[in-house]
Structure formats: C-alpha cells, structure tokens
Amino acid sequence: MKTASLFYEKIYTFEKEFHFIHFNSKSMRTKLFIISMLMTGFALCITSCGKKQDTQIKTDSTIVAGKIFDASMNNITLISVNGDTLNISTMDADPAKVPGVMVDDSVTVTYTIDETNNVKVAKALTVTAHSPRYYLTGTWVEPNPIKPTENQGITLKEDGTAESVNMATLLFKSWRLENSTLLLKSESIGNKQTITGIDTLQIVKLNADSLILSSRGNIIWRLTRSK
Predict the structure, then answer these.
(1) Residue 209 — pLDDT band, cuts 50, 70, 90?
(2) What is the pLDDT of residues 188-206, one digit of tens each?
(3) Nearest-CA neighbor of 112 among 130, 90, 128?
(4) Spatial contact of 168 and 160, defined as CB atoms under 8 Å apart
(5) Which residues lie below 8 Å from residue 57, measured CB to CB, with a gap of 6+?
(6) pTM of the model
(7) Could you write out the DSSP letters of every residue in the chain?
(8) Nearest-5° Cα angle at 178, 135 to 219
(9) Which among 87, 102, 165, 222 is most buried, taking Cβ atoms within 10 Å?
C-alpha cells in the first residue's frame, strides 16, 4: 500500500509540474509573439524614419528670350538677350508646348526651376520659335563698299513698310515675305528719273543677328542686325 501511495503521489506531482510547464509555455509563446510584433514595428519605424526623404521645391515660372546655342532630344542651351547661358531640360515636356528647335533659332522660353535634394534643374514649360517675319523686322546693315567706315542697308518695319539706310539713290518703300523669299519694293532715283521696281531675293541665312540674301544664285547682301 505504501508503494502504491508513493506511486500515486509521484503521478500527482508530475501532473502539477506538467501543468505548470504547459501553462507557462503558452504564456511564454504569447509573450514572445508580442515581443516579436513590437520589435518588427520598431524596426519598420527605424527604417521609415531613418530613410532620407526626397525634398522637392518648385519656383514660379520665368520667361526668357534668346538664341538657341545647342539642342538635343532632352535639352536646349540658350544664350539670352542679356548674354547669359541657360541649360533647360525638355524631358517630359508637352510636345505641343515645347516643339523642336534648331541651332540659331530665336525663341522665347517659359521655364521653372525644380530643386530636388539641392540639385536645381531648369525645365521648359513652353517654347515659342519665332517665324522668319519676326527675325526680319529691324535694321540690317553692311559696310558701304565706297566708304567702309560707314554702313548702308535697310530697315524692315513690322507694318510692312521699309526705309533705306544711307542709300540716297535707292529708296526702299515696302516689303513682304513669301515662304523663304523676300520681296522688296523700291524706287531707284537717278538721271532725272525715278524707276519703281520689286526685287525678289532668296533668304540664304536668317537668324537673330545675320541676314544673307541672294538673287539668281548669287549672294548680293551679307547683312548684320544693327544694335
């Protein structure tokens, strides 16, 4: 009987210990799960908080006029009328508002400055390439072949009228542009008579500063814009 009593006592003791261990194992698993979740959240917080965020700053738009010095698929280099050199990105620009341009084109560009992580990039919003008529208006001169210290030439006004510059016997009256052809109406004065005529001149070169005209394949005028 004593042996049986000892046997049952050991079983009872084992059950108590097993129940304690089992209970505490569940508790431990719960605690470990909570600790794991807290550590995961903490790690995510550290990662998120420690990650450097991109900072973007945009300025108001600016308008500048000038001449194209270089042009590529995603960038244009502009020499402004003040002599400043600007590199302007055309990447991701609207093709309808930022058309392709060529070197020496006179343009007006509206752009904004985008700053990301202290790196500034000028981005084009609109680019207006001026028509040949825009280029033509103004005063164009060349050295006088008789008096090289003096200039002669022509003034083409926006209203279509024209005036001679230091040319007493050839008076320009009006002008018009047809494609790449410049038509000049003039009066030639000499020998007590006045002859009215229209010169048909081909535009060989035209940009903001230079105008070269030919007639029947021969260059007759190499003009520069008068400042």
Answers:
(1) confident
(2) 988 778 899 999 999 999 8
(3) 90
(4) no
(5) 114, 115, 116
(6) 0.50
(7) -HHHHHHHHHHHHHHHHHHHHHHHHHHHHHHHHHHHHHHHHHHHHHHHHHSPPP-EEEPPPEEEEEEEEEE-SSEEEEEETTS-EEEEE-TT--TTTS----TT-EEEEEEEEEEETTEEEEEEEEEEEPPHHHHH-EEEEEE-SS-TTSEEEEEE-TTSBEEEES-SSEEEEEEEEETTEEEEEEEEEETTEEEEEEEEEEEEEESSSEEEEEETTEEEEEEEE--
(8) 70
(9) 165
Work out whether strand 85-89 and strand 119-129 pair parallel, antiparallel, or are unpaired: parallel
| Site of tokens 């926006």 | 158
Tell me the C-alpha to C-alpha distance, in Å, between residue 148 and each of 141, 145, 153, 166.
12, 6, 13, 12
Sign of the torsion formed by the C-alpha atoms of 195, 197, 201 and 206: positive
Report residue 16: phi and psi, to 5°.
-65, -45
Alpha-carbon distance 56 to 119, whole Å? Answer: 9
The 10s digit of each residue's pLDDT in 76-90 is 999 998 899 999 999
- Residues 112, 122 contacting (CB under 8 angstroms): yes
> What is the token pair recorded at 105?
């084109």
Retrieve residue 90's tokens: 């055309």
> Which residues, in sequence order, are bridge partners of residue 115?
57, 120
Name residue 2's amino acid: K
